[in-house]
Write a sequence for this structure.
């Protein structure tokens, strides 16, 4: 982010904020979708985060840390939205992947479905760490700043989240034994 634009927006320049919001909206929506696993909830969280950015922007002390600060506000909005909508709703829409080689359509669909089921089992805290680290490619330190937690906590959450994902995928892959009825 251009710190000059951030400074202008801090001073109330609506055009500067419009530029900031324009650059934030797509990545915010992508992160929120991956954390919440629901498009409608992600749109609500993104909108709330952008409103909060506008409201709290004058309080930001270091414009060079705007990106991490704004992601913290987004993650908090995701937490709030996640608490608001604890019910499960099927999400049929496919999220874009960054994989170029998609040869076996059915295999990829099965893998994505299995990963989606495993990812839904994670807590919002664990999802947030995985998304920021592996989808946004933030360093552990950047994730810590975005979440407002120590780096050690990020490492711990990431470790347990990945372990949970592996366990869930392995559990889904095990064949189901059927009892013979007599």
């Amino acid at each position: 982010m251009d710190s000059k634009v951030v400074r202008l927006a801090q001073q109330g320049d609506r055009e500067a904020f419009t530029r900031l919001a324009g650059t934030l909206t797509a990545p915010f929506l992508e992160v929120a979708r991956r954390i919440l696993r629901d498009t409608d909830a992600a749109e609500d969280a993104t909108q709330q985060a952008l409103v909060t950015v506008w409201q709290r922007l004058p309080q930001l002390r270091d414009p060079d840390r705007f990106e991490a600060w704004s992601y913290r506000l987004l993650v908090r909005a995701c937490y709030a939205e996640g608490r608001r909508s604890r019910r499960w709703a099927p999400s049929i829409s496919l999220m874009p992947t960054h994989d170029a080689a998609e040869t076996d359509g059915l295999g990829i669909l099965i893998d994505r479905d299995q990963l989606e089921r495993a990812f839904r089992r994670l807590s919002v805290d664990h999802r947030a760490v995985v998304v920021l680290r592996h989808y946004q490619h933030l360093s552990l330190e950047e994730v810590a700043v975005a979440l407002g937690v120590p780096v050690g906590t990020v490492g711990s959450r990431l470790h347990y989240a990945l372990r949970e994902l592996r366990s869930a995928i392995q559990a889904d892959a095990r064949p189901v034994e059927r009892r013979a009825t007599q």
Confidence is low (pLDDT under 50) at residues 88-92. Residues 2 and 10 are 13 Å apart (CA to CA).
